[in-house]
Write a structure and sequence with these properties.
The structure is a homotrimer. Chain A is an alpha+beta fold. Chain A is built from three helices and eight strands. The N and C termini of chain A lie close together (10 Å).
Chain lengths: 141, 141, 141
């Protein structure tokens, strides 16, 4: 018999480049440890609509491939191709974020992230160089 | 110490056009209010496989950009390009929905949707002009 | 008043082909039955980063369309187009998995998957011919 607990934390990021992939797995693990929750689910989501949280491989060649591929299917320039870019220049970032996703939901088992052997959690930034947040919410016991 | 509660509701839509983006944030907030749940998670998912629930910006220029972009990467016509279109004409809608996603999971904190400043929840219709549903499920306390 | 329970199971797959879509809806239903959980949420996620869990239609024409479409937007060959393919040949599988998604979260109501009429749960394999896993985690009551 388990009784529900909850936990909330914001993680802050400010990347040097417009686009970046940041491995946040250890930060998320720290949240679970801090929460004391042993069984449940954790939601990790970008709080901004030009960024992603996603799970994939921590391999620099692959991250290069993501960058090239996202630029092919949702190119940054020319800015004039997008209606959203009247007063903005980040329409492509909204599109890229849809491909990569807003959030990851991960199981917590025995007080740990229940991930496969190569699964790592990333913050995907598509319109950076400013302060942006990721929300971590845990429910469980 | 929290004890778990749950809540379920269906939201109905019937758009005038084949494709549409409908801001459902207020309807989802009403569900949370009705549920009385203060801490937990809310799942909002399309119950149809040619529609999406996703989170992005409520800006008409961007919605135009989504429409143009989705038509570029998964065009509606010619219908004959898709095997699914033997007796149907909506294969493109199944593809578009994969790009935009089926569901959003959002944290509930202090009885409210725990969203970033520009996050709004949308129903994305890709094969409309008929009654279709979104499921809202909340678990928490 | 509900008190939280949790359940965990791994499902194993080994497809004959590099790419495949496997309907796992019945296996997921069996997990819910086994768990005894009547109200809650179920997370079903690929534990590998070259595979997906997604919800769409169980229609062979559509699955053919997915295969053709994913090859168009993230082609397998030439392998040399991807930096990840130094010692690997599966960069395309990492990209395809981002389009199709890692996980599905589904409501459980009255002890059943709370799905729309045509929603079916699939394991999407993009780099198969070996043992790979899907995680099923349920929390609820």
């Amino acid at each position: 018999m388990l009784v529900m607990k909850s936990y909330r934390k914001e993680l802050w990021f400010n990347t040097n480049t417009r686009r970046a992939f940041v491995n946040i797995t250890h930060q998320v693990e720290s949240c679970i440890h801090e929460s004391g929750i042993k069984e449940g689910m954790i939601l990790i989501n970008a709080m901004h609509i030009t960024a992603s949280v996603f799970i994939n491989d921590d391999e620099s060649g692959l991250h290069h491939d993501f960058e090239v591929w996202l630029e092919k299917i949702a190119p940054e320039k020319p800015y004039s191709q997008y209606h959203h870019n009247g007063g903005e220049d980040n329409a492509d970032a909204h599109l890229k974020r849809q491909v990569m996703g807003r959030e990851a939901v991960v199981a917590i088992t025995d007080g740990k992230l229940d991930l496969g052997p190569w699964e790592q959690i990333f913050y995907g930034e598509f319109d950076g160089k400013r302060n942006k947040r990721v929300l971590v919410k845990i429910i469980g016991e």
